[in-house]
Design a protein that fits this description.
This protein has helices at residues 21-30, 49-56, 74-77, 92-100, 106-113, 135-139, 141-152, 178-188, 223-234, 266-275, 319-324, 343-354, 391-405, and strands spanning 7-12, 34-39, 84-90, 116-118, 121-123, 127-131, 156-157, 161-164, 170-174, 198-203, 208-211, 214-216, 238-243, 258-262, 281-284, 291-293, 313-315, 332-339, 358-363, 372-373, 375-379, 382-385, 389-390. It is of the alpha/beta class. Helix 1 (21-30) packs parallel to helix 2 and helix 9 (223-234) packs across helix 13 (391-405). The radius of gyration is 25 Å and the shape is elongated.
Length: 408
């Protein structure tokens, strides 16, 4: 559980997206968090305090004058045990008020007074806001001024998403879905060990055409590469994800810290990596085809009972070796290998041949398409097997191991 023992204050302001907050509370609790809900009066028109009390297991607070807080200081007491305050939905009004330091109800006053107790001191309590409003309201210059001020003050803005809105219009301003908000909050709590670093990740298979409808590819799903990209984003890096033909959503796209380039062939991927080589860390996770077809047919090859098509092969560019040989600005290169036998020996030989400081060797081909994986870390000092775990948890462990090995 990624939010185990975390205390979260969920602030709900007025907006139709408030109807999604009971599900959000449920997801937070499922990940181990304790949730305290604070609402504006306007929010009660869209979702009831009774519902939120039932799903959170805690009393819901609306009024600054609520006598359930013995000293009458709800705006102070409610945040002192919090690890983070999340506002979802965050209306244009609430964002503008907080950007100006205005406080005229319990929630807006709590945001000004928020702080968490740690070792006898009161430290600033982190604040994450999830905007939700009509697209014209989101695009309005006044709202964008509020957002800029909030970001300058250290407030984390998650979203908004773009799509159909309750008013019938379509565009930016939708609140992120509860699963995305949970994803963003879990990412927030990850250590920011790669803050300021530029990371390039290749992921998925490549596809080499035989004719317009047939080709050579492999079983890679892209899940491990996408998990590496997500873990790097969680660690604070800006990420360029170069993906072969996969059907996976871009991880943490709403953060604005990831760029995605979709490619097809090994040559396409090599060109995309070449244009992105000005980076600090390169993860070569993609299962790139070793060979390409020299003579692909421009038309579909027809089946013949007497003849089989003759295919001529040529080696594809070695993307990882090229990046490792970049003498102008060599990034820290991490290779991946899928071996079916002699994992340690073949993996170490590949690491040396590619001239990379770290290679991740999969324990057999069964990982393709699965949500779990088992690997060994291979560097100049030896081979270090890791336990089987889900790919995101494994990606976080790999990021931690890379951070330990980065040059000072």
């Amino acid at each position: 559980m990624y939010l185990l023992n975390k205390h979260i204050v969920l602030g709900i302001s007025g907006g139709i997206a408030a109807y999604k907050t009971p599900e959000l509370v449920r997801l937070f609790i499922k990940e181990g968090a304790q949730v305290q809900v604070v609402m504006t009066q306007a929010a009660t028109h869209f979702v009831t305090p009774t519902t939120l009390q039932a799903v959170s297991g805690n009393p819901v607070f609306i009024s600054q004058w609520d006598d359930r807080i013995p000293n009458g200081m709800a705006h102070i007491e409610l945040s002192r045990k919090a690890d983070a305050v999340v506002i979802a939905p965050a209306s244009a009004d609430l964002m503008a008020k907080h950007s100006l330091g205005l406080a005229d109800d319990l929630l807006s006053t709590l945001l000004i007074a928020r702080g968490c107790e740690e070792q006898g001191s009161i430290l600033p309590c982190p604040l994450l806001m999830v905007p939700a409003m009509n697209l014209q309201m989101w695009q309005h210059v006044a709202t964008q001024r509020s957002v800029a001020r909030l970001k300058a003050d250290g407030v984390i803005i998650l979203g908004p998403a773009s799509g159909p809105q309750a008013c019938g219009e379509v565009g930016a301003g939708r609140m992120l879905e509860p699963e995305e908000i949970l994803e963003g909050l879990c990412a927030f709590f990850q250590p920011k060990t790669l803050l300021g670093k530029r990371v390039v990740v290749t992921a998925g298979p490549t596809y080499e055409a035989i004719d317009p409808v047939r080709g050579l590819t492999n079983k890679s799903s892209g899940k491990m590469g996408f998990a590496i990209a997500k873990a790097a984003l969680e660690a604070g890096a800006s990420v360029h994800l170069i993906a072969g033909p996969v059907h996976l959503p871009t991880p943490l796209e709403f953060t604005g810290m990831i760029r995605r380039t979709d490619v097809l062939s090994a040559a396409d991927m090599a060109n995309a990596v070449e244009s992105a080589k000005d980076c600090d860390i390169f993860f070569s996770v993609a299962a790139v085809a070793d060979w390409k077809i020299i003579n692909p047919s421009s038309q579909k090859i027809k089946k013949s009972d007497s003849l089989s098509p003759t295919l001529e092969f040529a080696l594809n560019p070695d993307i990882l070796a090229r990046m490792a040989a970049n003498s102008a600005q060599r990034p820290f290169c991490v290779g991946f290998a899928a071996e079916t036998q002699h994992v340690s020996e073949f993996g170490q030989a590949k690491r040396i041949a590619k001239n990379v400081p770290l290679l991740i060797a999969n324990h057999g081909p069964d990982t393709f398409g699965q949500d779990h994986n088992q690997v060994s870390l291979i560097d100049a000092s030896g081979v270090y097997p890791l336990q089987q775990m889900d790919k995101l948890r494994l990606a976080r462990e790999i990021i931690a191991q890379v951070v330990q090995r980065l040059p000072a």
